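Retro notes - structure team

What went well: the batch runner handled both jobs without manual restarts.
What didn't: labels got mixed up in the shared folder, which is why I'm recording both outputs here explicitly, each with its sequence directly above its C-alpha cells.

Job 1
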Amino acid sequence: MSTWFEDAFRPGSEIQGKWNGRVYLVERLLGSGSNGVVALVRRGQMKYALKAGYETVDHQSEINSLHALSRTNTSFRNFLIDVDDMVVQGKEVSFSVMRYIEGMTISDFLHKQGQDWIYVIGSKLLKKLTELHKNGYIFGDLKIENMIVSRYGDVDLIDFGGVTPKGRAIKQLTEVYDRGFWKAGERYAEESYDLFSFAILLLKVLDRKNRFASFPKMLPQNREIELLHAIMKENPPAARLAPFLHKALNSQIATSEEAYQLWTGLVSNKKVSPKSTTMPWLKICFAASVCIFAATLYIYW
C-alpha cells in the first residue's frame, strides 16, 4: 500500500496550489525526513525543490523562518519561491517551494576531490552560518545530510526544519551532532550550538573507520568528548584543525564570526591537492594551444 506522499509525488503527476493556482510537475522524490517530504519539481523550464510538511504547525514555523531569511541581503535572498496548500486524498497539505540546488554530499565530494578540500568547504560553511546567525537564527540540525556541496567547494544548506530563533530551545536535532548527547552543553539556540555540530560534522566526514555508526548505541555515561580525540589524531586534516575543533566542542567559541577568524588563521596556508584544483578552463586552454600548434605546423610545413 502506497503512502499519501508516494501518490502525490509520483513522477509525472501535477501538484496545483489551492490558493495561488501554480502548477508544478513532479520529476522525482528527493527524500523524506522527520518533518516532511521533498520532491524535485518543474514549472516551465525552472526546477525547484517542493517540500510538503507532515505537521502544519512545524512546517509553518519553517516557512516563517525561510520567509524572513528570503528577505535578507544574504545568499538566502529569494530562497523561498512559493507557499500554498495542495489537496491529497481529500486532505489539505501545506507545501513550500524553494530553489533547487544541484550538488553532492560533503562525503562524496571529499571522496572524489580529496580530503584537503575540507579547508575550503569549512570556510564557506562558516560563512553561511554567519549569515544565518546575524539574522537571528540558529540552524539547529546541522549534519551531512542537510548540506550540499557543488563545484569548487561551494556550500548550500538544505532542510530548514531545525532552524530556531536565537534564545529558544532547539526544536529539531540529530543525536550525534547534538552537544546534549555528548553532555557538552544545553540544547539552547545559540551560535555555539551550531559550531559544536559543525565540529562533529567535520570529524564524522573525516573518520575513515566509521566509528560514528556505533555512537548512538553507546550508554549515556560513556559519551565523552575524549572519544573524538582519536579521530583528530589519526587524520591529518583533522589534526591540523585540532585547535579549532577542541574549542568548538567545548563551546569556547561564542560566535560564528569568531569561528571564521580562527578557522582562517589555521588554514590560510593550506593548499588543496593539485588534481582537485584543475579547472576546466585550464583544459580548454591546453586543448586550444594544441590546436593552434597543429595549425601552425600545417601552414608552415
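Job 2
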Amino acid sequence: MSPLARLLADGRGRRVYSGAAWSAGGPGGPVDRGWTGTRSWDGPPLDGGDLWDLASVTKPVVGLAVMALVERGVLGLDATVGTYLPDYRGGDKAELTLRQLLTHTSGIPGQVALYREHPARASLLDAVRLLPLTAKPGTRVQYSSQGFIILGLIAEAAAGQPLDVLVRDLVCAPLGMRQTVFRPDAEGRARAVATENCPWRGRVVVGEVHDENAVVLGGVGGHAGLFSTLGDMELLGTALAGGGRGLLRPGTFALMTAPHTDGLELRRALAWQGRDPAGSPVGTVFGGDSYGHTGFTGTSLWVDPATRRYAVLLTNRVHPTRAGDGITTVRRAFHDTCGIMPDRQRQGARPRKAGG
C-alpha cells in the first residue's frame, strides 16, 4: 500500500468521508492512483468509474473555456461586464472586467445563500445582478461564486452557446474527457458518489449538484455543477502538467496560470487559486508558483509547473453532513506527500495500478 493509499484509508477510518479517489503524476500520466471506501456509508464500494461532484473545481474548468474564447477573440480580459450583459449596464457591476471576475477581485461578495429567498432561476439571477459590492474592485481578493455565475453568463452571451456546450467543446472534447458533464444522465447518476443529507432538499443528494444556488440555476453554473471521474481528472491533470497542451496556446496558458494578485492578501491566477504564503489548503511542499483549485465537496486539483506534477483528490467529505473540518488536515497531508514522492516515471517504472 502506497503512502497516499494509507493516508486516504485513514481518512475514511476517521469518517472524514465515505470514499476517496486519487491520482498523482506528471505529463506522462499517473505514477500513483487508486480509490478507497464506498460511494456512501451504506453504499457499494468504489470501483474507479465513480462520478464525483467537483463543486468549485468547476471554476477553473469554466475558466479554461473562457480563456479559449479570449484566445479566439470572442472575449476580452479587460472588457467589461456591461459590454456583454445589457441588463448590467448602469449598475455597480457594469465596469467590472473579466480579469477581475477571474481573479476574485471584483468586489462581488461570495458564499451568499441566495437560493433561500430566490428559488427560481430568473429571481436568483436578478439577485446576483443586484447584490451590492462589498469591496472596491481591484483592492481585495474576495472569493466570489457569484462572480463566476456572471462569468458563465458572459461566456454564453458572447459565444451564443450554453455554458455546458462551451465546456464540452472547448475543454472536455480536446482532452477526451467524455465522463465530465453538467447534469449527469440516469447512467451517470447510478455511478455517482453521495454528498450531503441536504436539509433544504430533505434527502441525501446523489448525482445532483450539491451547491444549492447551482440547483436553482438548473445544474449548470460558472461556479459549480460539473461532475467527473478519476480517469477524466487525470487527463486534465496530465494536460496541465504538460503546459496546457491540447487546451490553450503556450502564451495564453502561461498568462492564465501566472499569479495576478501579488501585493494582495491571497494569491490568484486567472480562475485558479495560487499557493498562498500562509495557510494554503494544499500544505507547504508544492512550489510557490503552483496553482489549482479546491472544491467544497472535498475535491481538489493542483499542479506544480516547476516539477511538472499534478495531484487529484476526490472525496465526499460533505457526506452525510458538511459539519467538521477533517478534510483540511487530510488535504494538506495528501498534497505534501505528493510533493515529495519520487518520480517513478523518470526512473522508468510503470504507473501504479488502481486498487480498492
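One thing worth noting from job 2: The first strand starts at residue 19 and ends at 26.
We'll revisit the folder naming next retro.
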